[in-house]
Design brief:
alpha/beta, two-stranded antiparallel ribbon, 33% helix, 21% strand
Length: 301
């Protein structure tokens, strides 16, 4: 099934089309944002969104409004997300499937089954991860030989369990007040003991979600990759401490043989935004040149 939803302008702008695909026997929605432009596009981009059960497809075209060449983006919707959902109430289907390993497995199968991506050769697809999707993206690059570029925004190199402790130690609310380092350590122990529970919750997600997310070690995965990598974060990120991005930066400064860049947006939020700057659109626009090997596109002015 194919449905054309809308274009981002009345001229030759990208069109967002809805398709369906079966993964593990279940029908899933996915979206393809593409141009009718004659310009040859760069590599297809597999976009992995952040956490939550909102309908991300509604916002997807906005991120590519400043992309300077033909757009070719694929996005697999999460199970149990309804069209136009605002994320205020997640379905039981979504909660049962909202696990790190499940997201990773779903995207690996999507790359191997989606008709156009299935044709792609080794190292020919770029993966772009936002926030939680940025934690999944390195694992996709590790496990799929088709991934040739890794780009993340709003995601660093530390375990999320460590990131919460950094915020608590810094005195950032709510991590330090009303919560605390001791509270987090207690909850981590509980999650390790009851990691399959969909009934017990922490920070709005079931333990089953956190057991696969809190303790993953992205830096160890980045370290094994031999493809171009770029990670962008806002200096004032309120969801992931900038120290997590600095962990990536500092590791790769010691390993200059790796093709890695860290981009820090001064004063910017988790979404790379300031009052004057839409860093997310700016970062994504820069990917077009980065795919061609231009490392200067991320030199901030």
């Amino acid at each position: 099934m194919l449905t054309t939803l809308f274009s981002t302008s009345c001229l030759a702008a990208p069109f967002l089309q809805e398709h369906t695909i079966k993964i593990d026997g279940k029908q899933r929605r996915y979206y393809h944002l593409s141009d009718v432009a004659t310009a040859k596009p760069g590599p297809p981009i597999l976009l992995v969104s952040g956490s939550g059960c909102d309908d991300f497809s509604v916002r997807l075209p906005m991120f590519f409004e400043r992309y300077p060449t033909a757009v070719n983006v694929y996005y697999l919707e999460k199970p149990g997300v309804k069209k136009n959902a605002d994320g205020s109430k997640c379905s039981n289907e979504f909660k049962a499937a909202d696990k790190f390993d499940q997201r990773l497995s779903d995207h690996l199968k999507f790359v191997e089954q989606e008709p156009e991506l299935k044709k792609m050769p080794v190292h020919s697809i770029a993966v772009l991860g936002f926030s939680e999707g940025g934690a999944v993206a390195p694992y996709l690059a590790r496990d799929s030989k088709k991934i040739g570029w890794l780009a993340t925004a709003g995601s660093g190199g530390l375990k999320q369990s460590e990131e919460f402790l950094i915020f608590a130690d810094r005195g950032v609310e709510p991590y330090a007040k009303p919560f605390s380092r001791d509270y987090f350590l207690h909850v981590y122990a509980e999650i390790r003991k009851d990691g399959k529970s969909l009934r017990k919750e922490f920070f709005g997600h079931p333990y089953a979600y956190w057991s696969g997310r809190l303790f993953t070690d992205p830096l160890s995965v980045y370290a094994k990759l031999d493809i171009p990598m770029v990670a962008a974060m806002g200096e004032k990120d309120e969801s992931v401490p900038i120290e997590s991005g600095h962990a990536l930066r500092d590791y790769f400064l010691k390993h200059p043989e790796k093709d890695f860049q860290f981009v820090e947006y001064p004063g910017a939020s988790h979404g790379l935004r300031t009052a004057e700057r839409n860093g997310a659109q700016e970062f994504i626009a820069g990917l077009a040149g980065w795919f061609k090997g231009d490392k200067k596109v991320f030199e901030l002015k």
